[in-house]
Amino acid sequence: MVMFSVTRKRSAPIDGQKPGTSGLRKKVKVFMQPHYVQNFVQSTFNALTTDKVRGATLVVSGDGRYYSKDAIQIIIKMAAANGVRRIWVGQNGLLSTPAVSAVIRERVGVDGSKASGAFILTASHNPGGPHEDFGIKYNMENGGPAPEGITDKIYENTKTINVYLIAEDLPDVDIAAIGVTSFGGPEGQFDVEIFDSASDYVKLMKSIFDFESIRKLLSSPNFSFCYDALHGVGGAYAKPIFVEELGAQESSLLNCTPKEDFGGGHPDPNLTYAKELVARMGLGKSGSQGEPPEFGAAADGDADRNMVLGKRFFVTPSDSVAIIAANAVESIPYFSSGLKGVARSMPTSAALDVVAKHLKLKFFEVPTGWKFFGNLMDAGLCSICGEESFGTGSDHIREKDGIWAVLAWLSIIAYKNKENLSGGKLVTVEDIVRNHWATYGRHYYTRYDYENVDAGAAKESMAYLVKLQSSLPEVNKIVKGIHSNVSNVASADEFEYKDPVDDSISKHQGIRYLFEDGSRLVFRLSGTGSEGATIRLYIEQYEKDSSKTGRDSQEALAPLVDVALKLSKMQEFTGRSAPTVIT
């Protein structure tokens, strides 16, 4: 057994190591600074209670982006020095964010050990590579992101740190080879186990869904399927689940080899960045490349987000979570005994609210950030939840889960077609969505993203929108001057949330303008990028009349979009004549 010693390395605080709801995200070159990773990791260890570190089992893995392998070795050496008993690493350092949550919650080691937390190496849907983004976030023993109480402690620690512990003489571990490597240190044995990245997650999915019914769907001559991992970690699960378990053709998988730079692409599953899938599904600007598949889906870098498409048809994330909730009990065995409740993030459209009211379900509107859903789930109040930013999930884990959402949709399609897979007319994705609108009404919805805006200008923009709320008569005068047929603003505020579980209060969670006819404008600054600021503008209009639910979304929303852009003086503040992304 190789022995190691513990070194106390002197350090000093580094500015700007404040983790957000999605952990610490910066450019790779920032993480490569001397002591940068070490400071943040030690600050995290110091923020945890002793029992979550000394003698504990921790997971260290991520989406495989550039610099992950270096960071994994650093964290292993620091974990050994801080008294951690064992580290679990997905083969090649790969675990999707939902799989990490599943491993924490479900995996039991050969010696009966259970993980109490994880370092996840990801910058989610942001690009990877030597000049792109990297990130570290810590998840707790429930499998969910660290709460603010912990992330605040981490940040405070980064401002005063002067020493970190590391086992410098611990040799690098071969993370490509499955097996256990044992070392000896001052406090006894330290193990590093490399395990198959997919097996625990696949087992969990098989316990939730009826794989046999999905297999019948995928083998039907009426049905065709396409899944695009955008060269993210989702590719490590695509073949085991879709091909080996469900019998899909390997040719139905696009970009399913995980790459450090995501193949030079932007691993964000939307209509702008998932170009190859969008074209294959008949939604590209240059027209269809032959007959499109009946169903298509994409994942982001760490496979917690998803985009769902039908043949020449886009399903908004807000509609997606509402449709899953409306059909879950009859289509998905895991929910057969009923839903505990449903929840959405505030900027997400109110499509889920209407389903909840119709089905008499508990309903919650929370700030953006999966930890708010986690609190509700831990308290047994929520079964299904979603965000408009292509995140959907359930209480099987404490992260959003892109592949779970794809399997949920395949389950719904399989259920709707259980009588006609051998030759009848297929009930398509578009049919399912349009039938949903006919029952519940349609929430026309779009999101405008202005990425890498000057941070100062972005803050000024938000301050202006808050100040404008002080006089609704003035707001309505501006609105009517832009479009006389747009409804009046009935109320306006900054969204504030009191958590029903722990009574914590979250303020300044988005600026809302609520119209008399149920329409909404929401403005938020997003913290998911690594530099600059992203302004997100959400525009929503509810249509209950089934004869008017078939309009083109951008056409239906055009007057409200015009009002939003002029009311907010978006071009004046950002210097942009158009958003970076429209979804």
Write the layout of secondary structure elements.
Elements: E1 2-3, E2 7-10, E3 24-27, H1 28-31, H2 36-47, E4 57-62, H3 68-81, E5 86-90, H4 97-106, E6 117-121, E7 133-139, H5 148-158, E8 163-166, E9 179-185, E10 188-195, H6 199-208, H7 211-219, E11 225-228, H8 235-245, E12 253-254, H9 275-280, E13 295-299, E14 306-310, E15 313-315, H10 317-331, E16 342-345, H11 351-359, E17 363-366, H12 370-378, E18 384-387, E19 391-394, H13 402-416, H14 429-440, E20 442-453, H15 455-468, H16 472-482, E21 489-494, E22 497-498, E23 505-506, E24 511-515, E25 520-526, E26 533-543, H17 553-567, H18 570-574, E27 581-582
Parallel strand pairs: 1-9, 4-5, 4-6, 5-10, 11-12, 11-13, 16-17, 16-18
Antiparallel strand pairs: 2-8, 3-7, 6-7, 9-10, 13-14, 14-15, 18-19, 20-26, 20-27, 21-24, 22-23, 24-25, 25-26
GO biological process, one term: glucose metabolic process
GO cellular component, one term: cytosol
InterPro entries: A-D-PHexomutase_a/b/a-I, A-D-PHexomutase_a/b/a-I/II/III, A-D-PHexomutase_a/b/a-II, A-D-PHexomutase_a/b/a-III, A-D-PHexomutase_C_sf, A-D-PHexomutase_CS, Alpha-D-phosphohexomutase_SF, PGM
Per CATH, the class of the largest domain reads Alpha Beta
Low-confidence stretches: none
What percent of residues are in strands?
15-25%
Number of strands: 27
The first-to-last residue Cα distance is 55 Å
Query: How would you write the strand order of the largest sheet?
Result: 1-9-10-5-4-6-7-3
How large, in whole angstroms, is the Cα Rg?
Answer: 24 Å
DSSP summary: helix tally: 18
Count of discrete domains: 3
Secondary-structure class: alpha/beta
CATH superfamily of the largest domain: Alpha-D-Glucose-1,6-Bisphosphate, subunit A, domain 3
CATH topology of the largest domain: Alpha-D-Glucose-1,6-Bisphosphate, Chain A, domain 3
Quaternary status: single chain
Note the main sheet: 8 strands, mixed
